[in-house]
Amino acid sequence: MTFHDDDDDDFPHWFHGSEYMHRVAGAVAKYGPVTRTALAQILGLSQGALSRITSDLIHAGVIEEVTGDVRHGPLPENFRAKESGERRGRPQTALALCANARTFVGIKLNGTEAIGAAVNAHGEVVSGRHEVTFADRSPEQVTNAIAELTGGCRLDLAAAGLPEPVALGIAVGGHVEHDAVVTSAPFLRWDGDVDLKALAERATGLPTSVYNDIDSLLVDASWFGPGVGLETFAVLTIGIGVGYSLAIHGQPVNYPDKSYGLAAHVLVDPKGPTCVAGHIGCAECLTDSSIAGEYSSLIGRAATFDEFVADARNDLPQATWLLRRTCFRLGTFIAIIANLAMPRTVMIAGESAFLAKMGSASVRDGINRYRHSQASPVRFTVVDHDWQLWAKAAASRAIVKYLG
Ligand SMILES: [Zn+2]
Fold first, then answer.
1. What's the gap in Å between 282 CA and the centre of ligand 1?
2. What is the pLDDT of residues 251-310, one digit of tens each?
3. 51-83 residue pLDDT tens
4. What separation in Å is there between the alpha carbon of 278 and the centre of ligand 1?
5. Which overall architecture, per CATH, does domain 19-97 show?
6. Rg of the chain's alpha carbons, rounded to an integer?
7. What distance in angstroms lies between residue 310's CA and the mean position of ligand 1's atoms?
8. Structurally, what CATH architecture does the domain formed by 103-219+388-403 represent?
9. In what order do the strands lie in the sheet with 175-177?
10. Which of 270, 305, 313, 322 has the fewest CB atoms within 10 Å, i.e. is most exposed?
């Protein structure tokens, strides 16, 4: 696991210390509240070595002791608590990150709107909802939206008596280099490279990092959500587009071309509709526009995606058929991901993830159709869509970097 990102030397860090000090802080962030005994086992440290490091971190105001009825966070999946010296009945002391000692702002950029949220060091949202729309997608106007959202978050933090944010994370659908330069952003229709980090830093005065949005969701879930402690964890998003990313030990797999939407054209149904690239039955059939198109041809008149959803909720036969079919295709896609990439859990997110809840039996059928009968069931979790979650995820990446 790499904690030191030398790409970005001007990004602030919570503390400067040894590699192990950073590892301990990272483990407390993920697994806290966590006892010293469990922490030492997870990191393979002696109790003595761990105690020295945790003292330093407590002294630096990064972590704190919590006592009383301590409930563990999730622990690594292969973790087996050894018989410890902790006697039954003795009050447990555990370690947690100092949640409100630091705050961060996260912003998710969409085609014509941006959503912002302030979070604490636990990745918990501590601000109200902030949204700004922009008709003009130029980098200048988008930067103005970023400044406005950051200003709103700062006011919320001050009103709540929380500290000023230490960093800003921005998530964008597309390709970002060195956590700074957006080289491809289809929804923003930018030509050429945009140094969004520099623009945002000038406009907000906050140290900024810019990330791919799906990777941000993945990292957020791996540090503060359903992916904590999993060796391998995948996220699949459906909505306007199809997105996919894979994490190993909480870190997104580094693959230079992955933010070009490669997962969108994987074959999932040999009898599915044809995509713009001419493929029959590729994963593009899971996008809102493809579903709307397919529904329109089924009912013989132009219908929107929202009309399809309303008709499916009202159990209209053609809509019900297409919902089941779509969920079966989604299940097929999950099985392909599970069979090849072998994640422990697949998280389904995105604007249209709710379809997986409406047709969960069909999702399961699709998975089982392409899974060996003796293979373990594929675990998947469906996340209710909220753009604020994507903004929080951008902030979570800034937290991880700040802890590094
Ligand atoms: Zn295709």
1. 5
2. 999 888 887 788 999 999 999 999 999 999 999 999 999 999 999 999 999 999 999 999
3. 999 999 999 999 999 986 666 667 887 676 554
4. 6
5. Orthogonal Bundle (1.10)
6. 22
7. 27
8. 2-Layer Sandwich (3.30)
9. 175-177, 181-184, 194-195
10. 270
